[in-house]
Write a structure and sequence with these properties.
The protein has 7 helices and 5 strands, in the order E-E-E-H-E-E-H-H-H-H-H-H. It is of the alpha+beta class. It has 2 domains: 97 residues, no CATH class; 105 residues, no CATH class. The termini are far apart.
Length: 204
């Protein structure tokens, strides 16, 4: 049985992990821009990306495999109610990327949390464009017909996603291939639009 609790303590069940937190910023953003905090497993990150990041020491050392379903009951002292803000110390790893908004999606696939990578094209391009795969020319022709605002939103998202892949050194070759194809389609669609202005089309 677990040891008895002392006065003022509660019991918390937790599973030790290799969890760290990326403190992500956008490389071209002002210095006072908000920081995006993303929890990651350091082992999964090293497996999926260039492992050059310097990870801080994590006091919650791994005592069993991450896949274990076992938990430990840890006595935690609950402080009395106070007007002072609660402060926490997290093992942060600063990181700068070209496109902050698309970083969570890249980590979702790059860390292997989402294993069906064939769904990624639908997160990068409109479904009507993906439907023409694997014909890049046809994909670009359809994509070029989208309204300006919608086209630019997709284009900048793909551009940023591809930039993040190059910056972080993604190792998954299939994901790199998918995003490279999407980026080539997007750049060709932009060239088509520049050669011949396109009338606004209905949202697809």
């Amino acid at each position: 049985p677990p040891p008895p609790l002392q006065r003022g303590q509660s019991r918390l069940s937790y599973r030790p992990t290799r969890r760290h937190y990326l403190a992500a910023t956008q490389s071209n953003a002002p210095t006072n821009s908000p920081v995006l905090i993303l929890p990651v497993d350091a082992h999964f990150y090293r497996r999926g990306f260039n492992p050059d990041l310097t990870w801080p020491n994590n006091d919650e050392a791994v005592e069993r495999p991450v896949e274990s379903e076992n938990t430990e009951d840890v006595p935690v002292t609950i402080p009395p109610l106070s007007n002072e803000p609660l402060r926490m110390s997290l093992p942060l790893c600063p990181i700068s990327v070209p496109h902050l908004i698309s970083l969570p999606l890249l980590l979702l696939f790059g860390l292997g949390l989402e294993r069906d990578v064939e769904q990624l094209p639908y997160r990068l391009l409109p479904a009507s464009v993906v439907a023409e795969f694997p014909a890049p020319a046809a994909m670009a022709e359809i994509f070029a017909k989208f309204p300006e605002e919608q086209f630019e939103r997709y284009y900048m998202h793909i551009k940023g996603f591809w930039g993040n892949i190059l910056a972080l050194g993604l190792k998954n070759e299939r994901i790199v291939q998918i995003v490279s194809t999407a980026w080539n389609v997007a750049t060709e669609a932009r060239r088509i639009r520049q050669r011949q202005p396109v009338a606004p089309a209905q949202r697809r």
